[in-house]
Fold this protein.
Amino acid sequence: MMTLRMALRSIGANKMRALLTMLGIIIGVVALVVLVSLVNGATSSVTNAVSSLGTDMLTVTISDDKGLPMDLETLAKWRDELGAVGLTAPSTTASVTGKYGSDSDSFTVYGTSEAYDDIAGLKLCMGRFLNSADVDSHTRVCVLSYKAATELIGYTDCVGEQVSLNGMKFTVIGVLSDSESITTSMRSSGYTAYIPYTSLMRLSDSVTEAVTSFVVSAAEGRSVDEVELVLTEKLMERLEQDDDAFSVSSMNIMEDAMSSITSMLSILLGGIAGISLVVGGIGIMNIMLVTVTERTREIGIRKAIGATHGAILRQFLTEAVVLCMLGCAIGIFLSWTILRMAAVIASGLSMSFTLNGPVVGIAVGFCILIGVVFGLYPANKAAKMKPIDALHYGG
Amino acid sequence: MIDIQDLCKFYTVGDERVRALDHATMHIYPHEFVSIIGPSGSGKSTLMNIIGCLDVADAGSYLLDGIPIEDYTDNELARIRNEKIGFVFQSFNLIAKMSAEENVELPLIYRGVGKAERQRRVAEALERVGLTKRAKHQPTELSGGQQQRVAIARALVTKPSLILADEPTGNLDSKTSAEIMGMFHALHEQGNTIVLITHDNDVARQARRIIHIRDGKLSEVSL
Ligand SMILES: Nc1ncnc2c1ncn2[C@@H]1O[C@H](COP(=O)(O)OP(=O)(O)OP(=O)(O)O)[C@@H](O)[C@H]1O
Ligand SMILES: [Mg+2]
């Protein structure tokens, strides 16, 4: 307590120098806290966007059905039998040529069922999605992506329009909303349409009763990993224990890749900030060495009246750590201000930039560590002085 | 209480070897007021530094209260300085950024005395040197004589068994010197052991016992 007051006093006695010394630490802390908080803010908003788009969706592809084809009934049966599974829907794609009036363009058509929009997290801006009646009676209806509607047809309110896919007329019953663009654009850059699986069977020769690709969602409160496990087991059983005959993939892979990119970015930026903190620490060491030399006589006096090695060591070490902590506090305050400003500027981007708690903790811990590490040498130098030499230093 | 036998101290500057202390032998008993007098460069300060446990001799023995000093570690010496010795220097040696009060308090902090007790003893020591009113002043705001009185208060506050003064009046005019000397007399009457180092005959004569030092050799002259 006493040492702390003494340290604050001697720092206060030379404010300008203290401030300049702390600058390195301040910059280091600001770099660390602001950069990591920014990266976290930006990625969390992107990750949110990704996970809202059906990350609990598993895609199963069967490449070899071993003579036991998967059909729509089996799919429905699995949905009912497997507790972890929420919804199932076939998901077979085909490339077709879409035509509206005189305009034509290539389309990716999904042959699927009524559950698909829930599984994939699709949202509609117009009309409705497919229903079970459409699938049962292979009606020629389609749901268009926002892009297909706006660019090919020219407007979103196109429910009831007729689009021809490979020459077959389909009635538009719904249009997806624009916010789906992230997932859809990741899948394909062109136009997308969703039609009943049964209708796709008529449209494309290669699509038969045997479903080769389907999507599954997790039941309420069940994890995707759990579903993946159950599903893999079921498929292994069905497909003669041949794990090459099928594949189960989840959007989690994307999320994993994303988080590994962010954590790498965080480590990289943190490393750069860490280096500047170390540089700041060297500045602290430098000024502490100057202080020790300047106060050699004081050290001599203190030793003459009974200060032990430990007492002097503690005094200068405390001073170095306090200097670092002050720098750290100023740095955190500046970071907070900068992040507040960034939040105001970026408010339109729906990103939240807040002070990242763990990073602040890391910054504080790192500053203490730096104070101790770089304060130790000067403090030890002071403590090791012989009282007689120190007392007679400089006359 | 101080037992010095054949103490030698050498300094090597370049090729030359200076004998700052040459087989110095002396004894000082409790409650004595001894002055050590000698010309400049005779080894007075060297002797005082060794007596004050700030430095160690190269040869000879030094018993403080019957215990040989050579056996102690640096930290133990620090403790001895804190508990047994009070220093008064020619150049006052107060810590510039601290008030008179805080300077006096410092040895008690290093001894680990509690706050209330510290305040009581600091007030008492400052009163004994007549500086109660100047307690909050910084050394730069005090005259030389006042600074030296603060230094004396700092030496007193730990109730040391020995007060060591190295030319305490060396930087002061004759009137202030007399004041400071009066203070040492008072301390002696109160039972303190005082060793006073000086090159001034008038100052030395005020002590009960005078030891002469010349080229590191001690010789006693009784009055
Ligand atoms: N640190 C040192 N290094 C080298 N020589 C020293 C050192 N300290 C003292 N000496 C030498 O030792 C001798 C005695 O010095 P000392 O300081 O004890 O003298 P003094 O009697 O106190 O003199 P003064 O009255 O001027 O203070 C001198 O010749 C001095 O040059
Ligand atoms: Mg001297």
Notes: The pocket of adenosine-5'-triphosphate (ligand 1) is lined by residues B 11, 13, 18, 20, 38, 40-46, 199 (CB under 6 Å). The beta strands of chain B are 2-13, 16-28, 33-37, 59-64, 67-68, 85-88, 162-166, 193-198, 209-214, 217-221. Chain B touches chain A through 25 residues (CB under 8 Å). The radius of gyration of chain B is 17 Å.
